[in-house]
Amino acid sequence: MQEELRSLQPQLVDTSAETESLMVKIEQDTVKVEAQKEIIAADESLASDLAEATPALDAAISALDTLKSCRYYASQVNATSAFHSQTGNISIM
Questions:
Q1: What residues have CB less than 8 Å from 86, skipping those under 6 apart?
Q2: Is 88 a residue whose pLDDT tops 60?
Q3: DSSP letter at 89?
Q4: pLDDT tens-digit series, residues 19-58
Q5: pTM for this one?
Q6: How far apart are CA 17 and CA 70, in angstroms?
Q7: Radius of gyration of the chain (CA)
Q8: Distance between CA 26 and CA 18 in Å, rounded?
Q9: Is the pLDDT confidence value at 68 over 90?
Q10: 45-66 burial, b if ≥16 CB within 10 A, otherwise e?
């Protein structure tokens, strides 16, 4: 049994070194993953804000379009009413 343990000692040392190396890599990868999580959380927050703001933007654009069309019709009405007010200046002979 002692002989078998002695023969496995180099393999144990190699395996321990590999394990230590993997642990270091896992720690490094964990740091990278945490950084990516923060970026993803910020992106999700921005997406949520955008989803919340989009309906308000659409409503504002619609209201602006309505104002533009009202302005157009108001200018048409003013032009038409100007024609009606000038008829009083015409005299019948």
A1: none
A2: no
A3: G
A4: 999 999 999 999 999 999 999 999 999 999 999 999 999 9
A5: 0.48
A6: 79
A7: 40
A8: 12
A9: no
A10: eeeeeeeeeeeeeeeeeeeeee
Provide the token pair at 47: 């997406």
- For residue 36, report the phi and psi dihedrals to the nearest 5 degrees: -65, -35
Six-digit token string for 27: 């720690």
φ/ψ (deg, to 5) at 66:
-65, -45
- Tokens 């959380």: give the residue: 41
d(CA 39, CA 35): 6
In angstroms, the CA 48 to CA 43 distance is: 9
Q: How far is CA 34 from CA 19, 48, 75, in A?
A: 22, 21, 60
CA distance 52 to 48: 6
Amino acid at 20: E
